[in-house]
Write a structure and sequence with these properties.
The protein has helices at residues 43-65, 103-110, 117-121, and strands spanning 5-11, 14-19, 25-28, 74-82, 87-96, 127-132. By secondary structure, the protein is α+β, with helices and mostly antiparallel strands. It folds into two domains: 5-34, no CATH class; 43-132, 2-Layer Sandwich (GMP Synthetase, Chain A, domain 3), CATH 3.30.300.20. A three-stranded antiparallel β-sheet has the order 1-2-3, with no helix packed on it. The termini are far apart.
Length: 133
């Protein structure tokens, strides 16, 4: 199924993205480390958010299927940029499972990272470090 997202450049480094199926909008801005003002998510911030939300969503679906209480689980993700060429160099994921998620279930849920379509779409040069908190 194809999804259309329309992106409209508003000037001063900002774009508005419109989700075709729902009309929801997101605004992006050029980040300060690239000469912008950083007033909201940058495009690479959305890329980062896509990875963490994809992983957490897949974990949530596996947990639901297996009767694991997953609500309250979180991922804090850090994006590290490379300067030359300018691109994402590394992601550091700090996963905090809800207190109800047993260790044996945590291992199963960590394996969900490999099932994430965003993760599968990453360039192989992008490093990823995963920590459990």
């Amino acid at each position: 199924m194809a999804t259309i997202i329309t992106t409209d450049y508003k000037g001063d480094g900002q774009c508005t993205l419109i989700h075709g199926p729902t009309g929801d909008t997101v605004v992006t801005d050029l980040p300060p480390d690239n000469g912008g003002k950083g007033r909201c998510f940058s495009p690479t911030d959305l890329f980062t958010a896509s990875l963490s939300s994809c992983i957490l969503t897949i974990m949530g679906e596996v947990a639901k299927r297996d009767g694991i209480e997953f609500v309250g689980s979180k991922i804090e993700i850090e994006k590290i940029m490379n300067e030359n060429p300018r691109r994402v160099k590394k992601f550091i994921l700090k996963i905090s499972f809800a207190t109800s998620v047993e260790k044996k279930h945590q291992k199963k849920l960590i394996k969900c990272i490999e099932s994430c379509p965003v993760h599968k779409s990453l360039h192989p040069d992008i490093e990823m470090e995963v920590e459990i908190h």
